[in-house]
From TrEMBL:
It comes from marine sediment metagenome. This is SCP2 domain-containing protein.
Amino acid sequence: MNAETAVKTFRQIKDGKLFGEDLETFLEVLKYFTNKSEYAEEELYGWEKIVQVKLRDAKDFYLKTNNPFTEHPKLDIKYGNVHSPDTTIISDVDTFTGIMCGRAQRFTEGSMLFRIEGDGTQASIFFMLIRLIAQEFTEQKRQGLMKK
């Protein structure tokens, strides 16, 4: 992942223009920026949960933190399924990416388009990391460290 592609994709997220075909790039960008972010590093420290995402029309994947108690914990995203995740998100790829970028709203309990099973609070890790990365972008821009 190069920085230019990552910034372009992050702007798509911010502008609400992330779609199903952008899923793999979105996951690469999320991992890329999270693992470079001091803000996200603090959030990942001690986070031992696993969030599984099951998509009806795309590859399933899960998130976890590698070595959550080291000085610099890193986000890991793997394709496939994991046994006994703490949280499972069930959706289709367009609904999932729409929610990630704010284009679509989260759905009510019992919705078939977007459902969370298990510890629902852990599903917010996506939104937390995106928010932290955005904060860091804003700070870097303010300091003149990032190209427009």
